[in-house]
Every structure is written in C-alpha cells, then in structure tokens.
Design a protein that fits this description.
Elements: H1 10-18, E1 133-137, H2 142-153, E2 158-162, H3 172-177, E3 185-188, E4 191-194, H4 196-206, H5 217-245, H6 252-273, H7 286-292, H8 309-319, H9 322-327, H10 331-348
Parallel strand pairs: 1-2
Antiparallel strand pairs: 1-3, 3-4
Length: about 350
C-alpha cells in the first residue's frame, strides 16, 4: 500500500479530502476545528482528535475505530453508521448527536455527555437535568464579571445573585459561603468556590467544553501570564486613577508611576497578541476573559489606548460578543456608586 503523509491540521485534512483522499488513519488533529465539516466515509481510524471541535460535522459512515476522541465536541454531529469500535470517547460531548446504526462496541464512554442523543438502536437519550449554579456578584466588579462572562461563553445554566456591598456582604448567610466577605462566589450544590481565578479553573475542569484553555504549552503559558499580569500588575496600577475619578486627591508622582506600569503591561499584551485574533491563542481563552473585562475600563479612567492599535482591535472584537454586551456595567450604576467607592477607597489609604 502506498504510504501517505500524516495529516496534522484541519485545513490540510479538508484540502486533501476535497481532492478525493479518504484515508487518514494516523491523523494528529488534537484541538482541530472541524465544525460543520462534511467528511462522509472518511477513515480516521487510530487518529488523535482529542479536544477537537467536530460539532455538527457530517461523519456518516466514517471509520473512527481506535480513534482518540476524548473531550471532543461532537454536539449535533451526524455519526450514522460510523464505526467507533474501541474509540475513546471519554469526556466527549455527544449532546444531540446522531449515532443511529453506529458501532460503539468496546468504545470508552466514561463521562461522555449523551443528552438527547440518538443511540445506535434509534432510542433517544433523555435530556440531562440541568444543574443550576449560583454566582454571587456585584455589577461593578471586574472580578465577578470575568466569571459571569465565562459562564455565558460556556453556556452553563446559573443563577445570578447581586450584592450591593453596602453591608450585605457581612450578613451571616453570606459569610457562611464567603468567609472573607468578598465576591465573586460560585456555589455548586454544597461546594463553594471563592477567588475568581479558582472559579475559572473549576469551571474549565467541571465543564471542559467549549474549552477556554489551549493545548499547546506556549499558548497555555501566555494565558496564565496574561491572567496573572492583569491581576498583579494592571489592576493595582489603575487604583490611583480610580481614586481620581471618584473625587479623591491623588499625588501626580503616584499617577505617573502607575501610568508607566500600565504602559508596560499594555506593551507586553500587544506583544503577546501579535497577529493572533485572541490574546492567548487562536481561540477565545481565559486570558481574553480576564484581561478583556479589565482593559475596556481604562479609557474611562483617563488612560487612552490610541498607541496600541492591535489591542484596540482585539478589544473591539471582544465587546461585540454577546457575553461582553450582556455583562457591560451600566454607567448610571457607577455614578450612583461613586460615593460608596470613594468612602471605601479613603479607608484603604
């Protein structure tokens, strides 16, 4: 048999499939985007497609025997008559997929989601009961907004519980779930999670699809660096400007020092962004959510982004997303909260 080159990317696979090639036994396509791809009768046996996006793809009659599809997004995928013998589908999302007459013998389905899935015998799996999380937040908090955005991006059902932080954070009921009287707090049944980064990691582990973490090591590092730089460098440097906006006197030297620190962060962000559409990788990630719910506030604090065109374009892409628009704080809420913010900041001096 003629030896074929191994396929390593979704564009290469689609190009070669369109040219008439059908056999890709040892494809290496972890994390590949094959959403809505038409791949009738393709041979991907022994292929590695872990965490791949195959949602709504047409894989009728495909040979996926021994394929690694762990964590793959197969929502709404047409797999009628597909061969999935010994395939690893652990953690895969098969919600509303069509598996009619597919061969699932010896396939691994540990933790796979099969809600509303048409099974090989034609039976329809019942819809899985939706668990409702509770997010305690306040509308002006960037910390709680990043969790809110992540919940929306992952399409996770949740109940939003707003606090005014005018004393309700010290109520005994709230202190039971947040011993440091801070927001956000995520409540999942009898498990309470505090600290926004811990909550984001919990959501990523608990609801792995759609993934908000890349797979490539350097991309993972960029995501984590952007998260930490936002929290440890950018946010503290904005405090003097926030004090000025709410009417407190701020020393000019302190403002200059903070401005220089912010400019260093913005320069680094623009370097990490490069020519990619998103900050951490080619897809929306936690770095975009953490940094992208903070940067839009900079112009309001008197810190323009005119010298960072790539960051400006990136930010414009983010604020057009429904999750950003839905969580955008109302300016009137900020105006009404100015006195309370001023009082709190005064006590912190």
């Amino acid at each position: 048999m003629e030896k074929r080159d191994r396929v390593n990317s979704a564009p290469d696979l689609l190009h070669r499939y369109a040219s008439g090639e059908r056999i890709f036994e040892e494809a290496r396509l972890s994390g590949a985007d094959l959403h809505r791809a038409i791949l009738h009768g393709i041979d991907l046996s022994e292929g590695i497609l872990s965490e791949a996006n195959l949602s709504r793809a047409d894989l009728r009659g495909a040979d996926l025997s021994w394929a690694d599809l762990s964590g793959a997004d197969l929502r709404g995928t047409d797999l009628r008559g597909a061969i999935l013998t010994r395939a690893d589908l652990s953690g895969a999302n098969l919600t509303r997929a069509n598996l009619y007459k597919a061969d699932l013998s010896l396939a691994t389905l540990t933790d796979a989601r099969l809600s509303e899935t048409v099974m090989p015998d034609g039976a329809l799996k019942a819809a899985a009961p939706k668990e409702t999380l509770q997010l305690y937040h306040t509308p002006l908090s960037v910390n709680s907004r990043r969790v809110w955005v992540a919940l929306l991006e992952k399409d996770i059902p949740f109940e939003l519980i707003s606090l005014s932080l005018d004393g309700d954070q010290f109520e005994p009921e709230f202190l039971e779930i947040s011993p440091f009287n801070r927001i956000p707090v995520l409540v999942d049944g009898d498990f309470n999670i505090i600290e926004s980064i811990a909550i984001l990691d919990y959501l990523e582990a608990r609801y792995p699809l759609p993934s908000l973490l890349p797979l490539e090591p350097k991309a993972i590092a960029r995501v984590r660096m952007a998260e930490m730089v936002t929290i440890n460098e950018l946010l503290p440097a904005t405090m003097p400007f926030l004090e000025g906006v709410v009417g407190l006197d701020v020393d000019e030297k302190r403002l200059q020092k903070a401005r220089k620190r912010i400019e260093t962060v913005l320069t680094q962000f623009q370097t990490w962004l490069g020519d990619r559409p998103f900050l951490g990788s080619d897809r929306l990630s936690l770095s975009d959510i953490v940094a992208g719910t903070t940067l839009p506030a900079l112009p309001m604090l008197g810190i323009p982004l005119d010298n960072y065109p790539k960051l400006n374009d990136w930010m414009e892409r983010l604020i057009q997303r429904p999750s950003w628009q839905q969580t955008q704080p109302d300016p009137q809420i900020f105006e009404a909260a100015k006195k309370g913010i001023r009082d709190r900041l005064s006590k912190m001096r």
